Amino acid sequence: MTDEVVVFGSLRNRLAMILTGGAALLAILLFVVVRGYAAQIAQEGQDNILSASVSSILDSAVLRDGAVQLDFPYASLSMLSTPADDRVFYAIYEDSTLLSGYDGLETPPLVPNGERMFTSAQYDNATVRVATASRTLIGADRPRRVSVSVAQTQDALAETLNRISRNVAGFGVGFFALATALAFWGTSTTIGQLSRLTTSVTRRGPQDLSPFLKPVPSEMVPLVGSLNTLMARLEQSLKQSEEFIAEAAHRVRTPLATVRSYAEATLQRVQKQENRDALRSMMRAIDESSRAAGQLLDHAMVTFRAENLEREDIDLDGLLRELVQRMSPVAEMRDVALHLESAGPAIIHGDAVLLQNAFRNLIDNALKYAPIETTITIRIQTTPRISVDVIDQGRGFVPDEMDKLAGRFVRGGDTGDHIGSGLGLTIAQDVAHAHDGTMILSNRSEGGACVTLLF
Amino acid sequence: MRYITVLILALLPMFAHSQDWEDRQVFGDQDARHSLRILSSTDTSFFAPIIESFIAQRPDVSVEYLVTGTAELDVRFRQNPDLYDVVISSAMDLQLKLTNDGFAQRLDSLVHPDWAQWRSSLFAFTTEPAAIVINTAAFDGLTIPATRQDLIEVLRRNADLFYGKVGTYDVRLSGLGYLFATQDARASETFWRLMEVIGSLDAQLYCCSGEMIDDLVEGRILVAYNVLGSYALARADTKDALTIILPSDFPTTMMRSALVSNATSDPIMSEAFVDHLIRLQSEGSAKDFPLPSLDAFQDTNGRSSISLEPALMTYLDRLKQQVFIREWESAIIQSP
Amino acid sequence: MKYLLVEDNLELANAICSRMGLDGHQVDHAAKISDAVDFARMGEYDLILLDIMLPDGDGRSFLEQHRAGKNDTPVIVLTARSQVSDRISMLDLGADDYVTKPFDHAELQARCRAVLRRRTGTAQPTTRVGDVEFDPVGGHLNVKGSTINLRNRELRLLELLMNARGQVFSKQKLVDRLFSYDDDVSENAIEVYVGRLRKHLEGSSVQIRTLRGLGYRLDHDG
């Protein structure tokens, strides 16, 4: 009855994907942010040096003999050496005239005195960073505005950034790998909790509806709580059903018992054949309904229980011995002997309740059809497989019907006026199948029927 | 730079009697498939073995080796960068500015120490200190100066002896001379005092090391300041006549450098030549590589060469140059 | 035999009591557990017939009490429940056997006999008639020193005749008493059983006399 549970996605996969995806995003974000920050810092570094260079050049500006002179120190350009040997360009302007340096260097038009301005430009097919500053020299005649721009290519900067990028990328990948590993580990441990719960619940026997008591993480408490509530309700429901059935059975059967007893008593006193027949019919009817009810209940129970066997190691020898003892009074009553043939223990891994039920039905059947003063033999064999034969010395099966007899409510054509519901063999076969076995019907050569349950 | 350019162009007619080039030589088969034009300031004698070993492995290559002064070299190359494949000069500042201005091709595959190259485009391959070269005979009895200060002393004390007999570069004509002078000036005040002393002794100004050494040997001058020691050493006839002094106060060592023109028509062969050159520098014997290698003047006495860095362009700045030359002129050229 | 019947349904109780009485047993009837407890405490019973569903409680609690009080009077449970699990639980509680309603009286009788046989062992109360000793529970007949085991119907027939010494039983009546209503037997089957008994009783002071047209009667000399 275990329907396929509809699968939609996977918690583990979803969790892992979210964590991994998140880690990837974070790693990328980390990379972008750090690189951006590094670029900013590196640019600041270059700008600082350019600024110092511009300052040193600008500071050397003097007015001598009415002309602007800039005797800037060696250090002004020396400080611009980089490991990548970046190119250097500079331009010195007096007002808008180029005093010396590179013509065509893109410089900002007006930089307020005392301030540094940093721009990026193109010069001779290269991207350069330009620092510009200016000063006003007050001379005898007119103020001169001196503007100095120093530019440098960004090869060293690019190299540094690439190195940083590579390292950060490395860190990013490392972080991502670690985060992914953590994600999978974390997911597994968390999901593992669910697996453990599942295992615990699965390992329970089919009848076990007791609440699940092992400690669980707080998030699973509602689930386990609901599970326990569900099981409690199930148990309650089952108990109610059972109680109802018991009550119903009692209320139906007790009056029936009364009727039967009186009918039986009356039969003893009545002579007239007509009346005797009537009373007989009454008793037959009651017995039929009672037997039918019993067998229907048995059948229902077997059908249900076959899905969830409570398996344990059972010794068929012991089980059948007890059963024979229990049924002996009835057999004796009919002057039929019950004989158990067994060579010793016959252990199978099965459900005691189902097995008892099956054998009881078979022996009951046999008792019904066994003539007076005959023997019903119950034989247990252990080789080649464990098997139990129930053999009577009656009329035997009608050969043509044998394969159909195990069908529900099928009765043999020769059962005549014997009471029965036709479920006895069905029950035995269902129990055999539930134990991965088979039921075989046969007629004995010396007369009589044999029902074999092979396990 | 413009100042020197104008000067040169003005003085050009003076040298009209000389050829366009100081020297011009073709190595290899003139009709060869590949032909390299090398523009250089180094005497052919120094480069001949290098070139010959180059074309020995390459029969399909011919090399045209053109020699001129460092300043002239710079002007000519800037005018027609496509006419020349390889440019070799001892004027580090001019070479660096050429590279900075985008005239050199980047040769990333060449393997060379970091400090001896700039932007993988300019490759230094010698170390040659500036030296004081004296006429050994003339100093008989006199203390041989070890430092610039010593030189000042000796000149002052023997003013009569040395009057009109001291020579140095005319920084207005020689790019290397300008480089040496500016580096000296940057290093110490002693340079200016020395210039004044030399100036007071009717300084003899030269455009090139070769002439200075010739006159030294002849005895027309007795002291040459800031001469390329390597040139003096290279000359077999100078061994006994001259003494080469490397001033111990502070070194001024230049590195000869080579670059491949950005506008070259044969970049592969040009690169091959530079590669060959620097390989010879590191692996070759004195016979294969007649110039002092990069290691020659590098370790002992903590001598280190002038750095290949953008700062070399400082003294090429128009304004600074004006100021320097004006000062130099006022020191060196004194009306008697 | 003295039986205690605990059953709340009066009609059924009457039917059982009269039927048992017919077999020669004395039956006391309690309709509630509290009455049953009193009866059980006071009287010495050979067997208790116990219904499970009683107005003032579950028959099982009586069973538990009964066993807890170390009382080992055999108990046969009368129940409407026929599930194996129910039966097993009852046997676990201390019942000796059970019978499901509605039941065949002959089956009940057979079970009573089986339970008594198991419980009282060899010390059985016997009926002595003449020089014949008859143990109805054990099913033995002691004639002239030799013990004969009787088969079921023989046993019941003899018990019937012995309990009602001097009474005449018609063949039909005997058929009714000895066979199930369902059994298709003729009256001649009785002749077979009577014949067998006569054989067993040969040489004793007890005999079964045929009264032509009327039936059989157990007589003993002396």
Automatic annotation (TrEMBL), chain C:
Modified residues (4-aspartylphosphate): D51
Highest rank taxon of the organism: Bacteria
Domain Response regulatory: 2-116
Matches recorded under SUPFAM superfamilies: CheY-like
Keywords: DNA-binding, Phosphoprotein, Transcription, Transcription regulation
A Pfam family that the UniProt record links to this protein: Response_reg
UniProt xrefs under SMART domains: REC, Trans_reg_C
GO molecular function, one term: transcription cis-regulatory region binding
Any one Gene Ontology BP term: regulation of DNA-templated transcription
Residue ranges of the annotated DNA-binding region, renumbered to this chain: 124-220
GO CC aspect terms: cytosol; protein-DNA complex
Every OmpR/PhoB-type domain range: 124-220
Name of protein: Response regulator transcription factor
Species whose genome carries this gene: Yoonia algicola
Lineage of source species: Bacteria, Pseudomonadati, Pseudomonadota, Alphaproteobacteria, Rhodobacterales
